[in-house]
Amino acid sequence: MKRLAPLFVLMASVLWGSMGIVTRYVVAIGFNTRQTAAVRITSAAAVLILFLLITDRSKLKLRKEDFKWFLGTGLGSLFINNLAYAATVQRASLSVAVVLLYTAPFFVMIMSVLFFKEKLTVQKIAALFLSFAGCILVVGLSGANVGGNVIITLLIGLSAGFGYSLYSIFGKVLMGRYESLTVTVYTFILASLASLVIAEPVSMVRIIAANAEKMPVTVIGSVITLALPYICYSAALKYIESSKASIIASFEVVAASLFGVFLYHELLDIYNIVGIVCVVAALIILQLKPKSESGAP
Questions:
Q1: Model's pTM, two decimal places?
Q2: Range of the structural domain that residue 213 is part of
Q3: DSSP code of 199?
């Protein structure tokens, strides 16, 4: 399983990259930004709970002393990440929001060194900066709009990145005690409760009732592009360093761009292509064994 861990993170990043397809579908139904996040998170949470109730209820058990860590993944990470990212998109261009979101690996690397005593290697630093530069080139920042209040917009965007990074930290702690399904389901339960509070639930119910025939696609899409990648990512965290996992997950930007090309006929310029090459190169660098390891018998 340890050898497959990077592949699990890569799978998660591809599924996250397809999130825009479902998001566009949900927004077209008539939900606003906060409601879209609430519908997707709550749908995924409901399916996960139902699945565990049918298959293995023991996975719903958790120790009281670990609840604080689930608050970290559910509220500190998933909820704050979604809320701050949505706010950044409203204040700035999508490219700026994506780049600020992908400051997450920087936060993860710092916290991993401090809390997990991970080694800060030249290999990791090179891959980190290469992947971040690649993300910037993929999304493009020419003529980027950062809104009226630049400092506030940047702080909110960085909050999205920081929230995103917290899952790699708290999730790493929890994966030493629980299975990935347990970590994911409680993360989504707490995030869905918080999302519903700010999403005008009465208005949401009316929209759902008026578009009942479109909800199955919404639910299935939410499970595939939101719950499933978190399950894959959580499972990988048990076997891979948090800093490496967060860098590999930056492939999400590349995946999203490629989905845009193939499904919506979006065009890639030379900078986008160079950016994709940079991100892929970063992933390759991370998989190279240090000389000390490669020379070992």
A1: 0.92
A2: 5-288
A3: S
